[in-house]
Amino acid sequence: MAQRFQIDADQWLPLFVVNVSQGTKWACPFSHMVVGKSYPSLDSDAVHRMVVRQFEDLVRADRPLSVSQPIVGQRYGREMVTYRYPTRAEIRAELAGKDLGCHCALDEMCHADVLLRIAIGGEA
C-alpha cells in the first residue's frame, strides 16, 4: 500500500517516491505564510491544519484554482501566474499505487495524505 515519506534535506529521496513538496506539480498551492498573516491569532499548528483543509476543499471542488488565491510562485515575485491544480482523475491516474514524499513531519496532517486518499480511489 502506498504511503507518505518525509523528505529530509540532507538525504536523497528514494527513486520510488514521488516528490509532492513545494516546487513540484503536486505541491500544496496554499502558503503557510499567507494564511498565518491572515490569521495572526493562530499558532503554527493551527495554520498548518487550515492550509491542509484548504487543500482538501480545493481538490474536492475539482476545479481550477483562481489566480487571485495565494499559490506557489506568487509569494516569491510580483508576477501573476496561471495555475491549475490537477483534477482528481489526474491525481488517480498519475499517483495511484505510488509512495509520496513531502517535508511535513509524519505525525502531522499533510496535503500528501489527501493525495494518497484520492489516488487509491477515495475522496479528499
Structure description:
- This protein has one domain (4-120).
- The protein is 34% helix and 8% strand.
- The protein has four helices and three strands, in the order ββαααβα.
- It has a three-stranded parallel sheet with strand order 1-3-2, with helices on one face.
- Helix 3 crosses helix 4 (111-119).
- The longest helix has 18 residues, at 44-61.
- The protein is globular and about 40 Å long.
Which key terms come to mind for this protein?
124 residues; mainly alpha; three-stranded parallel β-sheet; 3 strands; 8% strand; globular
Total tally of structural domains: 1
- The class by helix and strand makeup works out as mainly alpha
Question: Percent of residues in beta strands?
Answer: 5-15%
Query: Helix count, per DSSP?
Result: 4
- Can you give the mean pLDDT? 84
Based on Cα principal axes, name the global outline.
globular
Strand order of the largest sheet: 1-3-2
Task: Please provide the ordered H/E string of secondary-structure elements.
Answer: EEHHHEH
| Helix-residue proportion | 25-40%
Radius of gyration: 14 Å
How many strands in all?
A: 3
SSE map:
Layout: E1 4-6, E2 17-19, H1 32-38, H2 44-61, H3 88-95, E3 99-102, H4 111-119
Parallel strand pairs: 1-3, 2-3
Helix pairs in contact: 3-4
Brief overview:
The chain is mainly alpha-helical. It has helices at residues 32-38, 44-61, 88-95, 111-119; strands at residues 4-6, 17-19, 99-102. The longest helix has 18 residues, at 44-61.
